[in-house]
Amino acid sequence: MPTKRIAAIDLGTNSFHAVIVDIQSDGRYTPVDALKEMIRLGRNGVGKKMSKEDMALGLEAMRKIKTLCDHRNVERIIAYATSAIREAPNGGDFVQMVIDELGIKIHPIPGYKEAELIGLAVQHGMALGEKTSLVMDIGGGSTEFVILNQTEIRYMVSRKIGVSRMTSDFIKSDPVKKKEIADIEKHYRKELSMLSGPVESNKPEVLIGSSGTMQNIAAMIAARQNLNVSLTLNEFEYSKADFDEFYAWFMLLDRKQRLKVTGLDEKRVDFILPGLVLVKFVLDKFGFNRVKTSVQAMREGIIIEYIRHEMKALKMLDKYPEPRRRSVHELLKKYRWSKKHSQHVATLALKLFDDLQSWHHLPYRDREILEYAALMHDIGYYISSRKHHKHTLYIVLNSNLKGFTQDEIEVMAHVARYHRRSTPKKTHEHYWTLKPEQRQRIKALAGFLRVADGLDRSHYQNVISFETEVSDKVTILLTTIADPQLEIWGASRKCELLEELVGRPIEIKSMR
After folding, report:
1. Within this chain, do residues 282 and 351 fall inside the same structural domain, yes or no?
2. Torsion angle (degrees, nearest 10) of CA 245, 247, 250, 253
């Protein structure tokens, strides 16, 4: 059961974004609900006095969030305000108004605190590894830069170059003029001069974009390439060449034409341009060739910070610091997995993968996907034993697994789905909407999982180990605790996909 339900609210220059989560006693958290209100507090210029109309809109947005929190029985609301409220001469009036009207205390935080929270969120939600990355979070009033890897934040800075501020200060024409773009670039060159030293010394290999502007850019590039990102933009990657081609086209459009671009939130149509100029400037100046996307941003950082400060038990975070594995194990725990069976099946599947490496030639990264699919293959039992494989497919596709691309989530979900009964068929509608290369990976990896699952047909881990011999056929010799006939029967009836992959018949026998 959840130990606490909290709401984290990011009061930005362009939008107020709230997320409600349940925090368990072991430090896990599960999203419950979310609400985003686009209000544009900085429409008259960041750092200038907010109008009565804008303050009224902000108060109404907070009222909607408070209503949602009350409806969801939120125990604590944590609200952080950024540039527009922090810098406005009457920002304190707005903060007091929200306290008086709604009883919510807003904490205006400095830019470096924004950067720290963004860094925590990206570390939690993406597979970073030991190599460093540069995170860029383009807000309305400010932009935060964080140099980090999976475990360490090495540098962070906030600069007053958010898209609302830059639009107000520099863009007067539609479509934007080359002179205006040049002026923006000149301003960026001055404001970001301090980044050169930290980038040079830490050598980040990839640029990671978080928050709305960067997500909108990623969504537009994905749509232009006819790529499906309906499940998640997290970990979505595009090249500098992809961006440059998109930039050259998009910057010539006027407002009416921009409104028709798939992936662009119409509420960002008036201030997306400085964000694009900033991405191009950073790519060119620091020599990045790849951009990745994070859907985790400051609000998730608020949650992570709260957990670290308030919760004594952080067993899951300590045990699984890498977000992909942690995310999978959080899901397994939530759906009360059959731990011994699933771990045993994963071990058997990975041994098959390793033993037959010379004959299947699959890349090593598929081994990790196979392991996670094997661990998750039976979580559908939480809903119903009948058609549990289809329930597993639905759960994996809709559980917001962290650190994975959409392609990887779809492959894992389908590999887990095909662990029993039928192999993929043209009547399986969801499977046939996938790309051909995804379908090929699914069939290959499902071949290992199906045989491994059959080798634990009893769910009592009767198969201790096996040896694999390959000649004109593949012979799997089992060492078991007791009579292995049920396991031989269970695995033999599910060999077809693996036989197709290695191009040989498979025979399963007892070592006895």
Report:
1. no
2. -120
